[in-house]
Amino acid sequence: MADVRPLKARSSDASRRRRLERRAFIATAALAVGSTALRPVRAARLGRETLIGEGEHVFRVRHHFPQLPDRFSWQTTHNVAVDSAGNLYVIHEGRRNLKDHPAIFVFDHQGAFVRAFGSQFQGGGHGVEIRREGNEEFLYVCGYQQVKAIAKLTLTGETVWFRKAPMESGAYAAGENLSTEPTWTREGFLPTNVAFLGDGVETSEGASDILVADGYGAFRIHRYDRDGTWKSCFGGPGEGKGTFSTPHGLWVDRRPGREASIVVADRAHNTLQTFALDGTYRETIEGFGLPANLETWKHLMVVPELKACVTLLDADNKVVARLGRAVERLAEIKDLRQQPDKWVDGQFVHPHDACFTPEGDIVVAEWVATGRVTKLERVDRAT
């Protein structure tokens, strides 16, 4: 039967229900104490909802948030980005033999399909980020495997420029800029993610430059201008403190109250490394399980970890929440990424990328065979 009570009464009931749910969750969750490690909190089921999180950072879980039309299929999801209108862009690796299948999909803020493009990245779709330049936004894409290139696109998929290995850097084997086969050596070019030094406005200081992580190739961080001209690089293979073992993701950290820095997810070392904007090494942050990328919102940083966890750091880079952590299940169940029937609501398998929406919700893409994109909707938006 329809609820015919006055709107004010129904609103009051809804407010009471939210307060009760909040109290129930806090009573269920085990809040850890300490700045660098938190005891994992199990998902709380409230009615038909699953809530995860700790303290002020509680989220409603919506697994499989965007839905593809039947004519398309997920082929291992990799990365996600959100434009200023709230549209979600998802890139998957795709299969090389399905050349006409798009690798990039766009959904509105409710998860409804909008458009698809990017078949040129099939077999190697990986990183995707969005930047406003003047009055227009652009999509920057990294392709590894057979693609071995970075590209700048419009939000509807038109190519602005497409660049292969920067041979002028001196880091790559002869012919690597022409190759279409993956070269899994430190002389190969297999870019994984991109970040931005500024807002795309041209200045003499290079504020419009972009950074590209060659995460599976030469282990270097390259710097280009917004027209795709290579300028410089730093890093290379090594044991840390300025060198890398799989620098898979990166972000320019401009959170309030902090000096701007480049942060690199040094995946195989299980660390984040921070650098000055000129590439000078600063510090190493430990305590992750194969960190794959990162992003910031207000004073928070989100770090998706391939070892079944999404971590939130505060302005001092201290852990404030570990979301969906299920590391033990990875050890217990062999090849869990191939078995969706064994996935558990509120738990992650292999988070590969995460991005914030303007409201502070988090979208997570997982490196799983059938693809999975989850939206974590912030319950307490006062943060």
Largest sheet: 6 strands, antiparallel
Rounded to an integer in angstroms, the radius of gyration calculated over CA atoms is 21 Å
| Number of structurally distinct domains | 1
Q: Structural class, please?
A: mainly beta
Q: Going across the major beta sheet, what is the strand order?
A: 1-2-3-26-25-24
Number of strands: 26
The CATH class, by name, is Mainly Beta
Q: Assembly type of the shown chains?
A: single chain
CATH architecture label: 6 Propeller
User: What is the string of SSEs from the N terminus onward?
Assistant: HEEEEEEEEEEEEEEEEEEEEEEEHEEE
> What percentage of amino acids are in beta strands?
35-45%
CA(first)-CA(last) distance: 37 Å
Q: Write down the overall mean pLDDT.
A: 89
Note the total helix count. 2
CATH topology: Neuraminidase
Instruction: Write down the overall geometry.
Output: globular
